[in-house]
Structure to design on (1524 residues):
């Protein structure tokens, strides 16, 4: 059934293509329906899934027999978690783009194509298939930004596309090499993970594939696409970029690079952890000095994704599950933040300059947006009660074992995070400037119903997962016991850890 | 004990209230005030019920509720109270309504204001009853958010800076504490305060830390000390202990009166509570190891803050420093408790006295300080924002009741026998003297300075020639009296009959002291 | 001719015969019957004849059973000695060539650059015949002759736009370079003959199997590589390509880029793999068994580098496609470098799908050129709004060229790279594959530039609506569907190829 999340998205794309031009309402309706259907499918599957069952095969059919490539969709708890995230982000993104009037149907067609690709990546267990979906997601991103974006949109779009493509080129090299070295018998991830690649091979293949994926996850110093991309993107696209696309990278790094090349991981673990921590601290520090509202959130994404990468590098069950939880959590929270900034603020005030916003007294004009942003901001700081907390907490617990110093530095990153979040909160909505008479000359349009619904969905989710992360952890934690992670487990065991 | 989840319900009442209020239209001010007060009265009722249900013949945690929550993260839903928790819950239930009444005149975004207030109350209830770190930390931080907004949105002219400073300082402490607890969790796999305390006193904790956590080349004891330092920082900022106090005067001064009352009366107690509930039981060895510097800090807190208060010209700031000073006594008591005395019985009596004193001091300061700030708030209202020490004079002549009641509160704060402040401070000093003679002796200096500046207030504000500006100063109105008189009565009651509190906490105190007999 | 009657021979070459006859018929009908008809009708009717002829040849290829001996281990027909090979692989390639020819014919159907319709169509068909013979040849003489037949037709096709001086210039350049390359090829092949005493590739391969590399053989190989390098426009023998692509009438350019490429690469692979299969490598390149690998490797690297980097700077889409073709030639060389059955399969899949894609791209360019008079990047602005279907198809073509899944270009590259990595010992070609992948990442940039014009940049003020002819639309859409289909289900080609290649004798 999960496979239909992929199919239905592409069916949605086709349906949108058939909608006559100018039928914006119909286009929105189809898009929303598709997204909701996808999410519901994911939800039902999540309930039907037995976490102890390990990897659940959905479809496995020979695709290109000559090269032993299968059409192999499957899911474990990690996939399901991220599928749910994708579903949520998709729905809310559409709700937040309800006001797109320019080339509406194309917008949603690209949007759904992106969603479909993302679902596909999360569900593919054949490397070739995974890569196909991974690259498939690049092009819609480009158009979404280049056509409907703002500030420097063509530059941001091209940068994003090229970074993604370079990353995927690195991945491609690694995949091909891994395929050939293992004897070119299979592209099945489960099979390949069993193959003991020689250490000398892993030594270069691991960083290649890992970094290739991690570029999309915003690994410092390859993160520079993220802020510009996020800023240039239209609201829904930046919600998806931060919410889901960055997760593609982290997911690939975990699912492919780490499972195939555990020895390589061991060799490069410290180096990558250093980069992750630099990302956490650096992202936060840069966010502290930004003038553009969206840049703050963009850099904060880099910082938060650093936790994911750090969690992956801990190579402990709790750190890894924390990393996955953080993927989910950041997806929700960053989506919400971008939604508020892009849709609720920018679309109304037509500026994202913090000094300008400071004088607008937005908390008066848009109380709902102010409240939403405040809660989201606190969630983003990693305050307990919100989903970021159990996630970052798990990552840090894991980090204590392997890299105590980094755990402390990451703590510093959290603090800087608190600082910039407070700062942006004050400047954006709770500016101190007295209400100047010329500001309310044209009152801002009130927050619409779709926006409210979308915001509430995300707020509720982050709260729910923050208070009861067991819902997801029960899916995630057992996943690391599947045969796919066996080599990784052995490696962790060899180093005296537990996974 | 019934199986009725009294504590959960108690925590949920203000939460529900907060949610209800936040949904209200901003214009429905009166309804919001009424609702808020209603919810408060219900939770006061709940607290009283808790008080009644609490079996003072048992030293154990009572009315516990325990449920699985997130097993893989060691999180449990585990609440319960002993004498310490009970006292704090009661204090919260009493002070918050008073603070709310004191903010009755807030006119901006009223529902939001009261909603934040209720949220804050929920955070406090949760903090004082949670027994698992994960659970506890949620409430610990939860209380921060409404406090931030209360200062930020309704504070004085420099509110933004004050709110930010307050939040970031506290977060520094919180993050340090969080990191420490995560390390502990990694080492021993539990967040349960009870279990951790047992491990701490038996020395297992340091061993586990050394086993599991290799960091640079630290030994187990050094590691434990580092971890301890993290947790310590978290509480020290909250209380605050000098030199971690710089956020406090600004925050107290800028916050609206009601909020200042809660800040000083309750939120500072969160820190002391943490010292008693968490730091002391879990890290007795580490605490003893650095007891001397800690005592120095406590003494510095007491003496310096008293001197600082003496130097202030702004009443709010003055009482803010005075608040630090009073909490300094609590900390002195806490640190003294950590002293290892082998197995000599006699000192146990002293320790019992100290701990009793600390608890009483927490309660009493929690009651007195808010009332003082409340009075300052009234004064400020009448004077149109003026609150300098020298702005007034001879008020006794125009507003005798006002001055009389405020005088009682000042004397209570000063520690006059017969009022509530006396008994706590007396017990602390009495017990501490044999345990840490020099520190106690130095602290007395603080007591002296406190007396001087409080009397100065009395003299400058109430006595002396009447400042003509205030010849028409309004007397305490009936609603205002309604706010302060019950509290004043309670001060007198406790001053005369401290047994009403001590009866409930006695066994807890003895048990805690016994536990400290490592 | 013992054992093979003329009738048998005719059956064997029936497809070629059909196409050749069609060429004469088309020429005749146009000259004799339709002189007075309007240009459009002449083109339509002629094209219909031509396409039908090709179709008939395809049908013939599919229905005719292979002679039994061709299916056995002994591949080449012994009596023809490699002059004409008929095995499943060759047939598949011929089908592909004919398919591309049909598409080219239909694209040219609506053009107006010439009134010599019969000649034009006949030349296309004759070029196709040349290609068909070329791919069936395993004898150097036959290879040379067919090569010349193809080339001469293509030179003329390039020059066909008589109103445009650029067309003549392009043809002249193409001709001069082509002639030179023919000279090189001939010289190289004659050396080969001298060294081995045979004209048949497999015999040559067997004879050249000696432990020490003969300097003369090196010269022979280098000469041959240069000759074919010209044909496939590998750097540094690429100079004719951009001008030819830009100057030639669009259908001609499309045909040069598609059909001619398929045939040239196929025969290039055969020459290298059969003829020089045992030419051993020197010590420095120890991991490569055949000595010509480094030479080709360097050619490939330079083609990719120069093709991609220069393409970035182009402002004319036709030139851009020309440079991109050079780059794609570089990728395709990887298939020859892989030096084995997988390599050849990958190569054929790649060049055929590339041919289809580039045909489609040129078709769209033709439409735009017809309207705007030129094919500058800016002429594409706003195409997405005016011609959504064409624009969408162009997106598919461009993305396929860039190698984005699930389009044919992606799988082609993937397969080529896999084959190349697996083909050499100890991942010896990995460096080149890494280089190729990096370059293909670069290439996304200029393909996106085209798409940016189409979708992002708004149309210029005047909205000149010249509706594209319906047949062109259909054919473009069809090509796009083929690109998508072959990308999603590459097994449609790869399966038969893999089944056929085992009879073709590649090791």
């Amino acid at each position: 059934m999960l496979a239909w999340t992929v199919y239905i998205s592409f069916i949605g794309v086709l349906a949108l293509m058939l909608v006559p031009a100018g039928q914006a309402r119909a286009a929105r309706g189809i898009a929303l329906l598709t997204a909701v259907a996808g999410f519901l499918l994911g939800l039902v599957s999540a309930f039907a899934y037995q976490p102890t069952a390990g990897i659940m095969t959905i479809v496995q059919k020979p695709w290109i027999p000559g090269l032993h490539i299968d059409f192999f969709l499957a899911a474990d708890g990690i996939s399901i978690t991220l599928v749910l995230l994708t579903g949520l982000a998709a729905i809310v993104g559409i709700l937040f783009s309800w006001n797109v009037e320019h080339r509406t149907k194309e917008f949603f067609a690209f949007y759904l194509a992106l969603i479909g690709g993302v679902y596909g990546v999360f569900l593919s267990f054949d490397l070739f298939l995974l890569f196909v979906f991974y690259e498939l997601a690049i092009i819609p991103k480009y158009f979404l930004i280049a056509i409907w974006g703002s500030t420097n949109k063509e530059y941001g779009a091209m940068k994003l596309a090229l970074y993604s493509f370079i990353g995927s080129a690195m991945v491609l090299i690694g995949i091909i090499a891994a395929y050939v070295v293992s004897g070119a018998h299979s592209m099945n991830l489960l099979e390949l993970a069993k193959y003991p690649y020689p250490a000398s091979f892993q030594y270069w293949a691991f960083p290649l594939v890992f970094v290739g994926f991690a570029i999309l996850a915003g690994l410092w110093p390859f993160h520079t696409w993220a802020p510009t991309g996020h800023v240039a993107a239209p609201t829904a696209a930046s919600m998806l970029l931060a919410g889901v696309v960055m997760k593609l990278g982290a997911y690939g790094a975990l699912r492919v690079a780490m499972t195939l090349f555990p020895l390589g991981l061991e060799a490069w673990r410290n180096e990558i952890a250093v980069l992750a921590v630099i990302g956490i601290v650096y992202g936060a520090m840069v966010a502290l000095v930004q003038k553009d509202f969206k840049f703050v959130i963009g850099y904060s994404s880099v910082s938060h994704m650093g936790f994911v990468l750090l969690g992956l590098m801990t190579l402990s069950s709790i750190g890894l599950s924390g990393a996955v939880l953080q993927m989910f959590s950041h997806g929700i929270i960053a989506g919400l933040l971008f939604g508020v900034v892009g849709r609720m603020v920018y679309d109304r005030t037509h500026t994202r300059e913090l000094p300008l916003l400071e004088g607008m007294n937005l908390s008066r004009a848009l109380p709902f947006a102010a409240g939403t942003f405040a809660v989201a901001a606190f969630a983003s700081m990693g305050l307990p009660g919100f989903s970021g907390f159990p996630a970052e907490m798990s990552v840090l617990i894991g980090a204590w074992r392997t890299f105590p110093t980094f755990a402390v530095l990451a703590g510093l990153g959290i603090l800087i995070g608190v600082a910039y979040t407070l700062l942006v909160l004050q400047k954006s909505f709770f500016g101190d400037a007295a209400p100047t008479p010329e500001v309310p000359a044209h009152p801002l349009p009130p927050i619409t119903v779709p926006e409210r619904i979308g915001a509430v969905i995300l707020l509720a989710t982050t709260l729910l997962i923050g208070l009861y992360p067991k819902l997801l952890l029960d899916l995630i934690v057992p996943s690391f016991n599947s045969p796919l992670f066996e080599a990784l487990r052995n490696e962790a065991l060899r180093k005296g850890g537990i996974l | 004990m019934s199986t009725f989840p009294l504590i959960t319900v108690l925590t949920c009442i203000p939460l529900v209230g907060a949610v209800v209020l936040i949904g209200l239209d901003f214009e429905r001010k009166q309804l919001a005030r009424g609702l808020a007060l209603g919810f408060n009265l219900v939770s006061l009722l709940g607290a009283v019920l808790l008080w009644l249900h609490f079996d003072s013949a048992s030293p154990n945690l009572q009315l516990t509720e325990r449920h699985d929550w997130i097993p893989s993260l060691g999180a449990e839903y585990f609440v319960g109270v002993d004498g310490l928790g009970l006292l704090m819950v009661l204090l919260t239930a009493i002070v918050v309504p008073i603070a709310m009444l004191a903010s009755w005149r807030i006119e901006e975004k009223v529902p939001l204001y009261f909603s934040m207030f209720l949220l804050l109350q929920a955070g406090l209830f949760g903090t004082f009853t949670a027994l698992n770190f994960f659970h506890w930390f949620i409430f610990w931080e939860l209380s921060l958010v409404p406090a931030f907004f209360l200062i930020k949105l309704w504070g004085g002219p420099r509110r933004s800076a004050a709110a930010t400073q307050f939040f970031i300082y506290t977060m520094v402490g919180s993050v340090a504490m969080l990191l420490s607890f995560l390390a502990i969790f990694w080492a021993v796999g539990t967040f349960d305060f009870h279990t951790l305390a047992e491990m701490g006193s038996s020395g297992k904790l340091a061993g586990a830390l050394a086993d599991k956590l290799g960091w640079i080349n630290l030994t187990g004891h050094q590691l434990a000390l580092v971890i301890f330092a993290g947790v310590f920082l978290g509480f020290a900022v909250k209380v605050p202990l000098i030199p971690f106090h710089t956020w406090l005067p600004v925050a107290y001064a800028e916050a609206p009166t009601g909020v200042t009352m809660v800040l000083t009366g309750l939120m500072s107690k969160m820190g002391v509570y943490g010292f008693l509930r968490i730091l002391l039981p879990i890290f007795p060895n580490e605490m003893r190891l650095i007891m001397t510097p800690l005592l120095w800090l406590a003494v510095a807190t007491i003496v310096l803050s008293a001197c600082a208060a003496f130097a202030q010209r702004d009443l709010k700031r003055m009482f803010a420093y005075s608040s630090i000073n009073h909490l300094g006594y609590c900390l002195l008591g806490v640190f003294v408790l950590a002293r290892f005395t082998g197995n000599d019985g006699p000192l146990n009596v002293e320790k019992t006295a100290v701990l009793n004193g600390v608890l009483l001091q927490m309660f009493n300061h929690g009651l007195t300080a808010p009332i003082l700030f409340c009075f300052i708030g009234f004064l400020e209202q009448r004077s149109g924002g003026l609150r300098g020490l020298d702005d007034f004079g001879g008020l006794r002549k125009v507003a005798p009741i006002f001055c009389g009641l405020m005088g009682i509160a000042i004397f209570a704060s000063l520690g006059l026998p017969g009022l509530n402040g006396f008994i706590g401070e007396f017990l602390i000093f009495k017990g501490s003297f044999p345990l840490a003679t020099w520190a106690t002796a130095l602290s007395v200096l603080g007591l002296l300075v406190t007396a001087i500046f409080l009397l100065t207030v009395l003299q400058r504000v109430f006595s002396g020639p009447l400042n003509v500006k205030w010849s028409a100063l309004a007397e305490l109105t009936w609603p205002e009296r309604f706010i302060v008189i019950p509290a004043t009565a309670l001060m007198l009651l406790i001053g005369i009959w401290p047994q009403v509190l001590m009866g409930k906490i006695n066994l807890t105190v003895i048990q805690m002291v016994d536990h400290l007999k490592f | 001719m013992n054992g093979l009657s003329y009738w048998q021979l005719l059956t064997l070459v029936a497809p070629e015969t059909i196409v050749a006859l069609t060429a004469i018929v088309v020429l005749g009908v146009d000259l004799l019957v339709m002189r007075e008809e309007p240009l459009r009708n002449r083109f339509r009717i002629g094209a219909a004849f031509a396409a039908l002829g090709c179709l008939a040849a395809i049908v013939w290829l599919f229905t005719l059973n292979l002679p039994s001996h061709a299916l056995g281990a002994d591949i080449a027909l012994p009596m023809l000695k490699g002059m004409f090979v008929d095995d499943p692989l060759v047939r598949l390639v011929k089908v592909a060539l004919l398919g591309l020819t049909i598409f080219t014919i239909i694209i040219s159907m609506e053009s107006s650059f010439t009134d010599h319709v019969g000649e034009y169509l006949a030349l296309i068909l004759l070029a196709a015949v040349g290609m068909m013979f070329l791919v069936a040849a395993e004898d150097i003489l036959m290879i040379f002759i067919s090569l010349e037949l193809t080339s001469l037709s293509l030179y003329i096709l390039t020059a066909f736009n008589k109103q445009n001086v650029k067309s003549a210039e392009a043809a002249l350049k193409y001709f001069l370079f082509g002639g030179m390359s023919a000279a090189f090829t001939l010289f190289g092949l004659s050396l080969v003959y001298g060294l081995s005493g045979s004209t048949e590739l497999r015999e040559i391969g067997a004879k050249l199997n000696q432990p020490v590399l003969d300097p003369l053989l090196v010269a022979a190989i280098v000469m041959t590589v240069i000759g074919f390098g010209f044909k496939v426009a590998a750097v540094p023998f690429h100079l004719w390509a951009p001008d030819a692509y830009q100057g030639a009438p669009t259908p001609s350019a499309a045909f040069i880029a598609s059909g001619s490429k398929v045939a040239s690469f196929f025969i290039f692979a055969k020459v290298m793999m059969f003829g020089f299969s045992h030419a051993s490598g020197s010590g420095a390149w120890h991991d490569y068994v055949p000595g010509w690998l480094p030479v080709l490797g360097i050619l490939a690297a330079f083609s990719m580098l120069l093709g991609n980097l220069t393409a970035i700077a182009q402002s004319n889409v036709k030139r851009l496609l020309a440079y991109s073709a050079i780059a794609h030639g570089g990728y395709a060389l990887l298939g020859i470098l892989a030096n084995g059955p997988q390599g050849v399969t990958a190569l054929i899949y790649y060049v055929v799908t590339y041919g289809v894609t580039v045909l489609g791209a040129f078709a769209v360019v033709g439409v735009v050129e017809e309207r705007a008079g030129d094919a500058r990047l800016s002429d594409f602005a706003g195409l997405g709004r005016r011609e959504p279907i064409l624009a969408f198809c162009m997106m598919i073509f461009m993305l396929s060229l860039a190698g984005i899944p699930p389009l044919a270009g992606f799988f082609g590259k993937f397969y080529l790279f896999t084959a190349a990595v697996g083909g050499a010992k100890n991942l010896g070609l990995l460096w080149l594959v890494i280089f190729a992948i990096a370059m293909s990442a670069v290439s996304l940039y200029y393909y996106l530039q085209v798409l940016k014009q189409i979708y992002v940049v708004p149309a210029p003020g005047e909205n000149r609506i010249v509706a594209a002819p319906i047949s062109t639309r259909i054919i473009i859409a069809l090509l796009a569907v083929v690109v998508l289909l072959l990308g999603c289900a590459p097994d449609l080609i790869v399966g038969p190829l893999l089944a056929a290649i085992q009879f073709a004798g590649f090791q």
Notes: The radius of gyration of chain C is 22 Å. Chains C and B do not touch (no CB pair under 8 Å). Chain C is about 75% helix and 0% strand.
